[in-house]
Amino acid sequence: MLKTLPGATPLPTTPDLSAASSVAALQPLKVACASCNLRELCLPVGMTANDLARLDGLVDKRRSVPRGGHLFRNGEHFEAIYAVRTGFFKTCVSSEDGREQVTGFQMAGELLGLDGISSDHHHCDAIALEDSSVCVISYAQLENLSREFTVLQHQFHKIMSREIVRDHGVMLLLGNMRAEERLAAFLLNLTQRLEARGFSASSLVLRMTRVEIGTYLGLKLETVSRTFSKFHDDGLMEVKQRQLRILDQAGLQALVNNSRC
Amino acid sequence: MLKTLPGATPLPTTPDLSAASSVAALQPLKVACASCNLRELCLPVGMTANDLARLDGLVDKRRSVPRGGHLFRNGEHFEAIYAVRTGFFKTCVSSEDGREQVTGFQMAGELLGLDGISSDHHHCDAIALEDSSVCVISYAQLENLSREFTVLQHQFHKIMSREIVRDHGVMLLLGNMRAEERLAAFLLNLTQRLEARGFSASSLVLRMTRVEIGTYLGLKLETVSRTFSKFHDDGLMEVKQRQLRILDQAGLQALVNNSRC
DNA sequence: CGTGCTCTTGAACTTCGTCAATATTTGTGG
DNA sequence: CCACAAATATTGACGAAGTTCAAGAGCACG
Question: Where is the HTH crp-type domain (chains A, B) (predicted)?
Answer without folding.
Answer: 177-250
